[in-house]
Amino acid sequence: SYTQAFNRRYGHVGHAFQGRYKALLVEDDAYLLQLVKYIHLNPVEAGLCREPDDYPWSSHSHYSIGWGRGTVETGLVKSIMAVFGTGIIDDYALLPVKPVEAVLPDQPVKGATTKSVETTLDRLLSIVAQLSDLPPSALLESTKSRHVVQARRLFIYCASRVGYKMSEIGQYLGKSNTSVSEAVEHVTRKLLDGRSNWTHWVKQVLDEADSSTTVSHSRLSKS
Description:
By secondary structure, this protein is mostly helical. It contains ten helices and no strands.
């Protein structure tokens, strides 16, 4: 059988796909990028190549130089990187200085937390409201105003970026988890589009959330 032939060739024992399947829920952007590093370093750690670029069956080049063999959906990771000013992850950002120090996917990322203790939802709401020239209460009301809806989506996306769960954001706004998820997806598409101001708005809110300075006067457009 295939399993017997596989075991003889590679010196394995047991089923070809033995062991309990493990699926990890990734809720933190920093953790996602650590997983990207880990996956692309696996061939190096296994001794199959010296550098990730040397392994032909890897998506590393799709991220490091923007193209490679086959078709790879890189949109999610690139949308996260876009907030920091680039859509392509260069070699320096992708890989640690010493590959052997790569963080395993079942280990917590050092320095990363589930959410910033300092960044409360009230604080985020205030930042987005100020940026949008709206009173904070407007974002909590049920309204179809395009400008308010746009500001609320910005708030939801940024809240998810700093580590709040969909259920926490939904409870705060009085919205369903589905509505919150749709808002996050909407902003993600805008970030991938690359032609809108969303990248600047998101970065502005997140930067302000990490500082005590006032929001600059590049306001959210009402058009």
